[in-house]
Specification:
With 450 residues, the protein is of the alpha/beta class. It is built from 14 helices and eleven strands. Helix 1 crosses helix 14 and helix 12 packs parallel to helix 13. The protein is globular, with a radius of gyration of 23 Å.
Length: 450
């Protein structure tokens, strides 16, 4: 007897409403939306953002603030009432997007199905929601390491829903799409087979394959290229009017005046210098009279001393032996490993950006990257710039205090860094969205003409 299908699909395909099919505004819903990086990119590409779902109330507060046209859907999608609302609001969308957390991918053994592992229940919910809503397309993003864990084929098969969708997995680097940050994501793009079209591989500048920061010697770093086109790419990288390949300085140099320990979280837009290049002009589009998220964490004396000894693009390997001591000034701060020296966790913190190339992948902590020139950490706004969030996009938290359901410990300031650090860069999302729009509209034109 044939096995019972994991999910049952409706037979109807959502399509444009009455009126001009070409002018019909495509709709999307964002699952596990966080602050809304995917939603922002799809909105920039012309999509109507219908709703965003997330369990974190702080992320939902940011989503609600920045997407007033959309329905915020707080809560755990595994709960029946939340799932019902997601399906109700999402009915008829053209695309479902999301990046479900997948805890158990690295522990797959003996050909076990990852979708059956309880630790991957959020991933299962994404697949089930696609099955229930039956959109024309879907986009699921995740860490690129998934492709090396022996589960890529399983995920592709799960997302195909028994052949209903044609699925194309691909690893994309945000820096190849105009984002001033090297950030690789594994993207699954699925298109309904009965639309009679197939997803294609997205292509960017390929700058990350050619350019990189090279350590010549202790304290000496240089941006260099490889291959016959290296000179052309180096010229593009150095051109502030080329928004296709963007450096850290081209992204945040107009914010260099921010100082460590700054408590005010906004600044009058008129106090900032003129935009220095195409990327800064792009980030300023649509912003109001003030720029927010510009407070800067305090910094202790030991960290300042070390940063002053680290060159642009450098890290702990550039420190002398005496600066590798756990405490320099005598002030005792933070955890100690009792060795008298910096521990491995500190090594990841003492890293300075290089102004002439894009940033490395930001994480969720303020000390994951220090400024290339000033001896300080970055503001949330500078994190956002390096992620390609425009200045009009404001990061906030839920006004309620204390331990509310879904909130992650760490406080409001850490939450804002975490929201930015966990997001999909909007410019990368916009590139994906444009491909999705082309696929859907091409398929529907074929249906009309055929």
């Amino acid at each position: 007897m044939a096995a019972e299908p994991l999910f049952r699909l409706p037979t109807a395909i959502p399509g444009p409403r009455e009126g001009d099919r070409e002018s019909y505004r495509l709709k999307m819903i964002d699952l596990f939306a966080g602050a809304g990086g995917l939603s922002e990119g799809f909105r920039q590409a012309g999509f109507q953002v219908v709703a965003g779902s997330d369990v974190d109330p702080d992320a939902i507060a940011t989503y609600k603030l920045n997407f007033p046209e959309a329905t915020p859907l707080p809560g755990d999608i595994r709960e029946a009432d939340v799932k019902r609302e997601v399906l109700s609001v999402g009915r008829g969308v053209d695309v479902v997007v999301g990046g479900p957390p997948c805890q158990a991918f690295s522990q797959v053994r003996n050909h076990s199905r990852i979708i059956d592992d309880p630790r991957n229940s959020l991933y299962r919910e994404f697949v089930a929601t696609v099955a229930d809503l039956a959109p024309a397309t879907f986009v699921m993003e995740n860490v690129p390491g998934m492709a090396q864990m022996g589960v890529l084929e399983q995920v592709t098969e799960d997302l195909s829903l028994g052949g209903t969708y044609v699925v194309e997995p691909q690893v994309l680097d945000a820096a190849d799409f105009g984002v001033p940050q090297a950030r690789k994501r594994l993207v699954f793009l699925g298109v309904r087979r009965d639309l009679k079209t197939a997803p294609v591989k997205l292509s960017g500048t390929d700058a990350t394959e050619v350019l990189g920061l090279v350590r010549r010697a202790k304290g000496q770093y240089q941006v260099d290229g490889r291959g016959g086109d290296a000179e052309k790419y180096l010229e593009r990288l150095a051109d502030p009017m080329d928004a296709g390949i963007v450096t850290a300085a081209q992204a945040i140099s107009d914010l260099e005046g921010l100082e460590a320990g700054r408590r005010q979280d906004e600044i009058a837009a008129g106090e900032l210098p003129r935009a220095r290049g195409a990327y800064q002009r792009l980030m300023r589009e649509g912003r109001g009279p003030t720029v927010r998220n510009v407070s800067v964490p305090r910094i202790n004396r030991d960290t300042v001393t070390r940063l002053l000894a680290i060159p642009e693009g450098g890290n702990h390997r550039d420190l002398s032996e005496d600066l590798l001591a756990r405490y320099i000034s005598g002030d005792k701060w933070g955890p100690s490993n009792d060795s008298g020296r910096l521990g491995r966790s500190h090594f990841y913190a003492y890293r300075r950006l290089h102004p002439a190339v894009w940033a490395w992948t930001l994480n969720t902590k303020a000390d994951s990257a220090y400024h290339y020139r000033a001896a300080r950490a970055l503001s949330v706004r500078e994190f956002a710039r390096l992620q390609s969030f425009p200045d009009r996009f404001v990061f906030t938290t839920d006004e309620r205090r204390g331990n509310i359901p879904g909130r992650i410990d760490g406080g409001a300031a850490h939450s804002r860094y975490r929201q930015v650090g966990n997001a999909v860069p909007p410019l990368l999302a916009a590139a994906i969205a444009r491909e999705v729009a082309t696929l859907v509209r091409t398929a529907r034109r074929r249906t009309v003409l055929g």
